[in-house]
Amino acid sequence: MRHSVYRQAGKRIVDISIVLATLPVVLPLILCVSLLVRCQLGRPVLFRQQRPGRRGKPFTLYKFRTMSDQKNLHGETLSDEERLTRWGRFLRSTSLDELPELWNVLRGDMSLVGPRPLLTKYLELYTPEQCRRHGVRPGLTGWAQVNGRNNVDWDQKFRYDVWYVDHFGLWLDVKILLRTLLTVGRRENISAQNHATAPEFRGRTEGLVRETRPSPEGIAVIGAGGHAKVVIATLEDAGLNVTGLYDDNPRLWGQSIAGVPVVGPVGALASQIGCRAVIGVGDIPARKKLARQLDLDWVSVIHPRAYVHPSVQLGRGTVVFAGAVIQPEARVGAHAIVNTAASIDHDCSLGDFVHIGPGAHLAGSVQAGAGVFFGVGSCAIPGVSIGENTLVGAGAVVTRSLPASAVAVGTPARVLRYRDLLAKAA
């Protein structure tokens, strides 16, 4: 509960409180740096640039200038390495150039801690998994900055960012702020090798959904039944390397399912913290149990013949099969299944572990709680809400909101019974 409160409102309150509390110290420092930038580099003192914020919404980022406006004989702007002055290097090494971003924090564009705001042009280069870094406000510092800063490659940096989105809380933010002070004090990892800061991101998709070459790390699939076969096909069609299947049925060990060996029991993965994996089990309670028991690097997978709009938010471990369509501003929680030829229209919000059956269709702004199951060919009209753990039968048409833990069938869908008798009493 405390973690949820911090995510919803507490983080913003902490940001404002810290910025206001430090103003008596920070304001004189900002004025001093402003004068020195004016003397060293001239006008303008501030660098302004549009950057993507939470959910990709653009905002104006403010920083102190660290580069000159020098051009070559042909009037072309010189490279960053050539324009970065000695004074500018000092500002960057001490992170003093970031001080104006405190105004962005007060405005609500940014947070003290979060993934760093990158260039707007990178948005179209992200994979859906990388886009998840925009699920929170960008920050002055972040998990990637205290784990290598500019001295880690883009793939690792994005993994750090997405990990933060999934795990952030008060104590993690405090830890990052303290480690940032230590990193800045030591002036560590300020720039990548042979670059003024970091190399340009050119759209790598290693280990994610539209990979065109096998991942050297590979992905483990948990489960060895029929659903796992479709997951394997989705991964392989996306160019990803499936390292093996893990299932607790000893009769399957050593066999091959869809060309992939069944390595052993699921428990064999328990010690492999950080192993990249996806759950290949369709049963919702089983998926919940596995996700909670195993501390793995859950990978979101999208079939290359599915359509997912860049603004869509996908939770980790979610799988989108061939022919599925997810339209703008939809949100799908963690470990969900969007099955073959299913569609989710604009602004839908689906909780964790939701299973959308083959050919099921959700119209705009449908709300579905965690663990809802939509049967084959079922439909929901715009704006209806469906309580958590409800089962919508095959071919059913949901025309009005349904309570939690219900079994609804028919056209229009009516509650046949309750899966949990306590839900009916409530």
Please give a structural write-up.
With 426 residues, the chain is an alpha/beta fold. The chain folds into three domains: 2-186, no CATH class; 219-298, Rossmann fold, CATH 3.40.50.20; 301-425, 3 Solenoid (UDP N-Acetylglucosamine Acyltransferase, domain 1), CATH 2.160.10. The chain is built from ten helices and 29 strands. The chain has helices at 2-41, 80-83, 86-94, 101-107, 128-131, 154-167, 170-186, 226-237, 284-293, 421-425; strands spanning 46-52, 58-64, 111-113, 139-141, 219-222, 242-246, 256-257, 260-264, 276-279, 297-298, 301-302, 307-308, 313-314, 319-320, 325-326, 331-332, 337-338, 343-344, 349-350, 355-356, 361-362, 367-368, 373-374, 379-380, 385-386, 391-392, 397-398, 406-409, 414-418. The strands form six sheets. The chain has an eight-stranded mixed beta sheet. The longest helix has 40 residues, at 2-41. It is elongated.
Which value, in Å, is the CA radius of gyration? 24 Å
Structural classification? alpha/beta
Shape: elongated
Spatial gap, N to C terminus: 21 Å
- Output mean pLDDT: 85
Q: Please give the domain count.
A: 3
SS elements, strand count = 29
Q: Could you tell me the strand content as a percent range?
A: 15-25%
Ranges where pLDDT stays below 50 over 5 or more residues in a row are: 189-196, 204-216, 421-426
Instruction: Compute the number of helices.
Output: 10
Oligomeric state of this protein: single chain
Strand order of the largest sheet: 11-14-17-20-23-26-28-29
Helix content: 25-40%
The major sheet is characterized as: 8 strands, mixed
